Amino acid sequence: LEVKDDKIVCGTIPTIWALPHWPMWFPFCESNKVLRRFSPSCFVINCTLKVLFLRVDFILFVNIADKLHTSEECLEILMRSPPPGSEGQHWMGVTIPPKCGSLPRICLINSALRLKPTAMDQFQVDLQMELDDPAGAP
């Protein structure tokens, strides 16, 4: 990870791996805590977001797979949250902490992000995501 003047200047994978530095690039990220690390590219985190005076958090299992040297030629990032209402229960080898406020915890049911380089400074992004919607938004 290369940082100059408190800004990350290069490195997609090192940027994702540098969990304590997420508040530098992730919008509204106040903090990020590793709950369990299986390997450098596979971990469970608790990320807290703050917008004005409101705080909301999410728990994520993240797995980063370097498939650049395979026929798929991509980086694949798979993410998943524990089921809603699982505070205090065990999931992926961790006890899920209490949510940070009165708002519902963000729950990412499934997500797959694929980054495929198309040039030295460009890549194609494919994202599939399913979120839990506790508020029932239309």
Fold and architecture overview:
This protein has 2 helices and 10 strands. Strand 3 (29-39) and strand 4 (42-51) form a beta hairpin. The protein has 138 residues and is mainly beta. The longest helix has 6 residues, at 12-17. The radius of gyration is 16 Å and the shape is globular. The strands form 3 sheets. A 6-stranded antiparallel sheet has the order 3-4-5-6-9-10. Strands 1-2 form a two-stranded antiparallel sheet.
Oligomer: single chain
Distance between the termini: 40 Å
Note the main sheet: 6 strands, antiparallel
Low-confidence stretches: none
Please provide the count of β strands: 10
Note the beta-strand portion: over 45%
Report the average pLDDT across residues. 85
Q: Compute the number of helices.
A: 2
Reading side by side through the largest sheet, how are the strands ordered? 3-4-5-6-9-10
Principal-axis shape = globular
Q: What is the ordering of alpha helices and beta strands?
A: EEHHEEEEEEEE
Radius of gyration: 16 Å
Roughly how much helix do the residues carry, as a percent range?
Answer: under 10%
What structural category characterises the helix and strand content? mainly beta
In short:
The protein is mainly beta.
Give the SSE map:
Layout: E1 2-4, E2 7-10, H1 12-17, H2 22-25, E3 29-39, E4 42-51, E5 54-67, E6 74-80, E7 90-91, E8 94-95, E9 108-119, E10 122-131
Antiparallel strand pairs: 1-2, 3-4, 4-5, 5-6, 6-9, 7-8, 9-10
